[in-house]
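dumping this here so i dont lose it
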C-alpha cells in the first residue's frame, strides 16, 4: 500500500517523498488512518519501525493551519534526545506546511525556551519536568491541547513518571485525543494506559516486547572484573568502528569510558548528569566516527537514532527486562542488520533469565575468546597497588595460570590462554 492511500494531504505526501519513503510500515499503515479519524490509539510496535511518523503525520494534518500562539498538540517523551528527535521529524514532515514545532527539555537554560514559546507553537514536544517548570512560570498554556501523545509510553507511565504525568493531565482539557506509542508494554502498564484512553483502538503489529528480528543476539559469561578487558578485546579484534555500550549507572558509564580510553579505544560517556551540550557533542562525535565507543545509561535506549549502528553491547544487563528490547533496538533499524552482545557475570544470571522469559526465547551463550587482561597505567599506580610495594603486571590473560602471568610480566607480552575447557562447561549447562 502506498502512502497516497492513507488519506494524507499533498503537502505531507510531498514531505514523505522528499525523505525517500514510498510505502508505509505496518504501524504507519494502521495508525495513520486511525489518528486521522480522531480515534484514541494504543499502539505497540518494535523500535525502529516508524512509530514517530505514525503519529506525527496525522497530527500535522489534523492541526491544519496555525491558530493562535498556544500549542494544540503535545508530545510527552522521557528523554531530551527523544524530544529533539521527534521535533526534528515533525519539522521535516511539516516542511511544506506552516505549522510551528518546538521542543522543551531540561539541562539547558529555560529563558530561550520561554522566549520561543511566546512567538507561537502548534506542536510542542516536551519532557515532563521541564514542561511543568514552564507551566509553573506561566510560560506555556496547555488549556487548548487537542491531541496528547505519550511516546515510549511504558517508560512515561512507569512509577517514576506517573506523578508528573498526572500533574500534566490536570493542565489539559478533559476532551482530547490520546495516543500512546511504545515498543513494549507490561500487562500492568497496558491496563493503566487503557484507563486513560476512551474507546481506544489497540494496534499491535508484532509480537509484544519482541526485538527486531534482524538483530543477532548472543551472550558471553564473564567475571565482572574481566568485562572491560573482554569488551576492549572484542572492539579491537573485530575492528568495531562504532559500538554503543550500556551500563546501569552514570558512575559506571564514566568509569568504563575512562578505562576504554586507557586501553587505547576512543570513548565518551552519555547520561543524565551530563550537560545537554556535552551529550550533544558526544553523540555527534560518535555519529561522525570520531569516537568508537559511546558508553550510555538508559537515557540512550530511548530516542537515539543512529544510522546503520552495527553493534550494541549490554556491558551490564538492565534491571527491567523491557529495557533490553529498547537497548538492542538502537541497532537493526530500518531493515538493516545489527548485532547485540551481552556480557553476563555470575550475579546477572537471573537478569538474563528475565530477558529470555520476556522474549520467549533463549539468548545463545557463545564461548569466550582468549583475551588479555591489560592493566592501565592509572590502575597500576592506584593506592591499592602501591600498598603491595610492587607494580602490577602489565598484562596477563583471563584464566591463565599464575606462572603464565608471571612469564608475561617478565617478557612484556600477553600470554593467550585457551578457554576450551570452560567453554565446554558453559555449553553443557
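and the seq i came up w/
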Amino acid at each position: 500500500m502506498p502512502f497516497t492511500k492513507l488519506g494524507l494531504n499533498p503537502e505531507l505526501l510531498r514531505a514523505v517523498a522528499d525523505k525517500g519513503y514510498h510505502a508505509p510500515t505496518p504501524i504507519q499503515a494502521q495508525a495513520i488512518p486511525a489518528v486521522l479519524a480522531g480515534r484514541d490509539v494504543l499502539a505497540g510496535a518494535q523500535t525502529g519501525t516508524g512509530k514517530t511518523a505514525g503519529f506525527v503525520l496525522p497530527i500535522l494534518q489534523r492541526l491544519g493551519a496555525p491558530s493562535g500562539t498556544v500549542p494544540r498538540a503535545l508530545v510527552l517523551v522521557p528523554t531530551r534526545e527523544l524530544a529533539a528527535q521527534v521535533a526534528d521529524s515533525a519539522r521535516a514532515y511539516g516542511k511544506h506546511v506552516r505549522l510551528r514545532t518546538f521542543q522543551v527539555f531540561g539541562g539547558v537554560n529555560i529563558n530561550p525556551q520561554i522566549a520561543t514559546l511566546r512567538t507561537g507553537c502548534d506542536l510542542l514536544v516536551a519532557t515532563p519536568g521541564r514542561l511543568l517548570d514552564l507551566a509553573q512560570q506561566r510560560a506555556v498554556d496547555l488549556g487548548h491541547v487537542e491531541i496528547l501523545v505519550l511516546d515510549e509510553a511504558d517508560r512515561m507511565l512507569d512509577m517514576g513518571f506517573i506523578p508528573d504525568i498526572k500533574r500534566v493531565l490536570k493542565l489539559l482539557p478533559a476532551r482530547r485525543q490520546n495516543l500512546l506509542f511504545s515498543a513494549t508494554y507490561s500487562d500492568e502498564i497496558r491496563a493503566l494506559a487503557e484507563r486513560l484512553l476512551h474507546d481506544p483502538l489497540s494496534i499491535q503489529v508484532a509480537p509484544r516486547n519482541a526485538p527486531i528480528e534482524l538483530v543477532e543476539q548472543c551472550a558471553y559469561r564473564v567475571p565482572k572484573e574481566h568485562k572491560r578487558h573482554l569488551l576492549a578485546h572484542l572492539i579491537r579484534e573485530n575492528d568495531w568502528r562504532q559500538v554503543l555500550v550500556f551500563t546501569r549507572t552514570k558512575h559506571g558509564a564514566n568509569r568504563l569510558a575512562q578505562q576504554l580510553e586507557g586501553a587505547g579505544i576512543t570513548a565518551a560517556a552519555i547520561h543524565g548528569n551530563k550537560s545537554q551540550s556535552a551529550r550533544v557533542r558526544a553523540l555527534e562525535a560518535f555519529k561522525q566516527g570520531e569516537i568508537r565507543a559511546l558508553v550510555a545509561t538508559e537515557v540512550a535506549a530511548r530516542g537515539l537514532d543512529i544510522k546503520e549502528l552495527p553493534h550494541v553491547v549490554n556491558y551490564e544487563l538492565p534491571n527491567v527486562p523491557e529495557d533490553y528490547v529498547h537497548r538492542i533496538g538502537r541497532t537493526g533499524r530500518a531493515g538493516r542488520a545489527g548485532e547485540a552482545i551481552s556480557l553476563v557475570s555470575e550475579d546477572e544470571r537471573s537478569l538474563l533469565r528475565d530477558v529470555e522469559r520476556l522474549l520467549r526465547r533463549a539468548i545463545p551463550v557463545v564461548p569466550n575468546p582468549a583475551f588479555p587482561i591489560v592493566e592501565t597505567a592509572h590502575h597500576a599506580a592506584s593506592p591499592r597497588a602501591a600498598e603491595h610495594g610492587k607494580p602490577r603486571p602489565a598484562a596477563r590473560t583471563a584464566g591463565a595460570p599464575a606462572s603464565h602471568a608471571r612469564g608475561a610480566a617478565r617478557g612484556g607480552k600477553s600470554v593467550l590462554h585457551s578457554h576450551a575447557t570452560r567453554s565446554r562447561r558453559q555449553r553443557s549447562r
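The chain has a mean pLDDT of 82.
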